[in-house]
Design goal:
Layout: E1 8-12, E2 18-27, E3 32-40, E4 49-53, E5 57-59, H1 68-80, H2 84-97, H3 100-118
Antiparallel strand pairs: 1-2, 1-5, 2-3, 3-4
Helix pairs in contact: 1-2
Length: 119
């Protein structure tokens, strides 16, 4: 199976660790995939990159977060791994998932809080 860069996958490492993450790169000749780990039963590899055989991985749906709450959980993970680009991407995705009225209300509330601090 050919995995594309940025595709969400889950599987096991050679050490037997369960992982979920996205494909950073794929070597179709050697059938090796480099995965950025966002979820694992082995805490030490969270936020790290691991190399896994293609056969040990399976593709996940395009949105593995399971809605807004899932995105917020992953934002927490991006913060803990200090991955600024990922954080910005996720917050943009979260902001885009809200209805325009919610975005307007949120920005109005932020403006009100800001005005109170100036007073």
């Amino acid at each position: 199976m050919k995995f594309e860069e940025g595709q969400w996958v889950q599987g096991r490492t050679a050490e037997g660790e369960l992982i979920q993450g996205w494909v950073e790169s794929s070597d179709s000749l050697d059938r090796i995939v480099r995965v950025h780990v966002v979820n694992s039963d082995h805490v030490d590899i969270l936020g790290k990159r691991v190399t896994v055989r293609e056969a040990w991985l399976k593709a996940l749906p395009a949105n593995p977060f399971g809605g807004t709450e899932g995105v917020r959980d992953v934002i927490d993970l991006a913060l803990s791994t200090r991955d600024r680009d990922w954080f910005l991407e996720l917050t943009e995705q979260l902001g885009g998932s809200r209805r325009p009225a919610e975005r307007e209300a949120s920005s109005s509330a932020a403006a009100c809080r800001h005005m109170k601090t100036l007073a």
